[in-house]
């Protein structure tokens, strides 16, 4: 994909940003729906590429899935406006309203489209889909709460995200299942408070950004590409730190928000939920460690056609990534003293 940010692309990024602002600041459900539609129509031109069939297929799949979710959401919104004026907190209606939102952000049990679409995207679009596109549905999900239902969704996300990623060789699919697993933590954090969710989301987005930037710079899409011997050791170390941080291993930065969520869940006696979260995080860490450990142990010969040439601008960028990865160790410890 061409990464030159021309005026057309910048316009669509601008619309993408403001459509989210429209949705989360709207005081009516119809306004939220309009924001979601503008968001969809601005993201499709960014992911479609005439020269790449995978990207075109991904954009079509994304459009179909989001359209189905939007139709359902609009139907339930209109149903509320005309038929359920006196039944604002009807439990069945609240579940029905939550389902299209869960579908929009790729949550289990509507997660099947998410890894398939991720497979056809560039790393920049993968990052947007894993982070920015989840903001609006998450905020809207926090308006209506039905705890037992959302608890079931959290457990489902946690299990599917962990078990789905075990047999993957594609890094994009692996990151997609990682995102599904992290979604369960995000729903738990927004159940606690919006500030908690904001902190979790920012730290998760930062780690995701570092990972996607590294994969983009090295042009890596599959696990076996990490085993090439001409990838420097320092790059492999940085990759390992970021992956372990994403999995939530202490004392990395990614552990900090998870620790706070676990603390809250234990205080409020959600022991089974906490146990499932921790067990599934261990499975996530297992395949992160399997990836990085293999890349240290296995070294393929330097192939003639395989060259990694990082430009000077990339080198300075890589140094920034490395500093962030290393700072995660002391930062996560120091944050508890403030």
From TrEMBL:
It is an enzyme of class 7 (translocase). It is found in: Mitochondrion inner membrane. It catalyses: a ubiquinone + NADH + 5 H(+)(in) = a ubiquinol + NAD(+) + 4 H(+)(out). One of its GO terms (biological process) is mitochondrial electron transport, NADH to ubiquinone. Residues 26-283 form the NADH:quinone oxidoreductase/Mrp antiporter transmembrane domain. Its EC number is 7.1.1.2. It is a multi-pass membrane protein. The chain crosses the membrane at residues 12-36, 62-83, 141-162, 198-221, 233-250, 270-293, 314-337. InterPro entries: Complex_I_Subunit_2 (IPR050175), NADH_UbQ_OxRdtase_chain2 (IPR003917), ND/Mrp_TM (IPR001750). The keyword Transmembrane helix applies. GO terms for cellular component: mitochondrial inner membrane. Keywords: Electron transport, Membrane, Mitochondrion, Mitochondrion inner membrane, NAD, Respiratory chain, Translocase, Transmembrane, Transmembrane helix, Transport, Ubiquinone. GO terms for molecular function: NADH dehydrogenase (ubiquinone) activity. Core subunit of the mitochondrial membrane respiratory chain NADH dehydrogenase (Complex I) that is believed to belong to the minimal assembly required for catalysis. Complex I functions in the transfer of electrons from NADH to the respiratory chain. The immediate electron acceptor for the enzyme is believed to be ubiquinone. Core subunit of the mitochondrial membrane respiratory chain NADH dehydrogenase (Complex I) which catalyzes electron transfer from NADH through the respiratory chain, using ubiquinone as an electron acceptor. Essential for the catalytic activity and assembly of complex I. Belongs to the complex I subunit 2 family. This is NADH-ubiquinone oxidoreductase chain 2. The lineage of its organism: Eukaryota, Metazoa, Ecdysozoa, Arthropoda, Hexapoda.
């Amino acid at each position: 994909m061409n990464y030159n940010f021309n005026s057309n692309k910048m316009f669509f990024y601008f619309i993408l940003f403001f459509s989210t602002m429209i949705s989360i600041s709207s005081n009516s459900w119809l306004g939220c729906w309009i924001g979601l539609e503008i968001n969809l129509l601005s993201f499709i031109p960014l992911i479609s590429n005439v020269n790449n069939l995978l990207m075109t297929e991904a954009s079509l799949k994304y459009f179909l899935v989001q359209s189905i979710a939007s139709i359902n959401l609009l139907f339930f919104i209109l149903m509320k406006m005309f038929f359920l004026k006196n039944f604002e907190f009807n439990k069945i209606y609240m579940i029905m309203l939550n389902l299209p939102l869960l579908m929009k952000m790729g949550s289990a049990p509507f997660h099947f489209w998410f890894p398939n679409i991720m497979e056809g995207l560039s790393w920049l679009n993968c990052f947007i889909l894993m982070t920015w596109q989840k903001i609006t549905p998450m905020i809207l999900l926090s308006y209506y709460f039905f705890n037992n239902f959302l608890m079931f969704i959290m457990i489902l996300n946690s299990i599917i995200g962990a078990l789905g990623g075990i047999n993957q060789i594609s890094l994009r699919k692996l990151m997609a299942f990682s995102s599904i697993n992290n979604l369960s933590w995000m729903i738990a954090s927004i159940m606690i408070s919006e500030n908690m969710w904001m902190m979790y989301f920012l730290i998760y987005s930062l780690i995701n950004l570092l990972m996607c930037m590294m994969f983009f710079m090295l042009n890596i899409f599959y696990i076996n590409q990490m085993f090439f011997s001409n990838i420097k050791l320092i790059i492999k170390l940085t990759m390992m730190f970021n992956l372990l941080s994403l999995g939530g291993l202490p004392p990395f930065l990614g552990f900090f928000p998870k620790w706070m969520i676990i603390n809250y869940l234990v205080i409020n006696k959600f022991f089974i939920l906490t146990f499932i979260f921790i067990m599934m995080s261990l499975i996530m860490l297992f395949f992160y460690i399997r990836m990085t450990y293999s890349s240290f142990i296995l070294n393929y010969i330097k192939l003639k056609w395989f060259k990694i040439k990082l430009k000077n601008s990339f080198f300075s960028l890589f140094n920034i990534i490395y500093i962030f990865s290393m700072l995660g160790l002391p930062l996560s410890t120091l944050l508890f003293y403030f």
